[in-house]
Amino acid sequence: MDFTQNQRLMQITENTLIIGVDIAKRKHVARAIDDRGRDLVKRLVFENTLPGLKHSSKSNDAQTLLLAWNQQDTIG
């Protein structure tokens, strides 16, 4: 979908979960914030390897993030 920045901002509600991922060569960082920019869980840092991804997906923070995501709206 082709939205302008204002149209994207208008889609965000108090039930929206925003997930940002900083992709890097060796380590990635993921964060989840609410509509006001408050952190919902501690940032997730994981290595750019399959074992690194598997390990991070089993962490407590990742599980909390997934639970929060299931309760939120999604925007395409």
From TrEMBL:
<protein>
    <submittedName>
        <fullName>Uncharacterized protein</fullName>
    </submittedName>
</protein>
